[in-house]
Specification:
This protein is an alpha/beta fold. The chain has one domain: Alpha/Beta hydrolase fold, catalytic domain (Rossmann fold), CATH 3.40.50. An eight-stranded mixed sheet has the order 1-2-4-3-5-6-7-8, with helices on both faces. Helix 4 runs antiparallel to helix 8. The longest helix has 17 residues. The radius of gyration is 17 Å and the shape is globular. The protein starts with 5 loop residues before the first strand and ends with a helix. 46% of the residues are buried.
Amino acid sequence: MSHVIKKSSIPTTWGSIAIAEQGDQSAPAVILSHSILASSMMWEEQLAVLANAGWRAIAIDTRGHGQSSATTPPYTLDELGLDIITAMDQLGLAKAHFVGLSLGGMIGFGLGIHHADRLESLCICDARADAPPPFFNQWNDRMEIAKREGCQALALPTTERWFGKAFLETHPEIATRFQKTISETSLNGYIGCAQAIQQLPYLEQLGKIAVRTTLIVGSNDAPLPETMKDIQSRIPGANFELIPNAGHLPNIDQASAFNAALLRHLNAH
């Protein structure tokens, strides 16, 4: 079965939220939220996989990313979570499954803590829930580069960090596509989201998450496998899936294994 990706825009009080969706609109909804400096483009394979498995898959461009409007920083993760709730309201979704990777996963922790009544389940990928000093400080360095040279200056180092040089050399089409998306990210959107990440407030509140949760992480995404094992111990009943030979975006570099883990999570509902 084939489904066409439908792109649309949701009006808000501050601008618009862009979405890409695939699948039967009457099917159970799965919302996907991307990493910083990416957009809904990183979920295109998962949109098709989920649609063909009987889900309504909806990938949302985070504020200041992709085709969503950018507002002036600062942003907070709670605000970015409310953007998801606004999109759900406009789409008429009382509840949805939520899948978030990196920044999207951080947003997901906030949704699980503050908006559990809107969630069927949580799937958090390659994300942490706090911002210790070394993690905090690296964002200062990256923001300074972006302010001086634009987000295009982050394209090569970011994709090398996500995928590794060897993967990029053997998958030039992925390298080109992601580097283009990074380069086109608005400076306000990047700075706003990076500052929000620096304020990650959720680690000590993870025990409040009562919705069914699966944590997925790439085995090569150091130090996140260990970090997410700790997070698993803090969320009651959380499942943990390690994707072998995967980096920070396991849905891209080990898509088959990631898709299988995601479908296991959703089909267990």
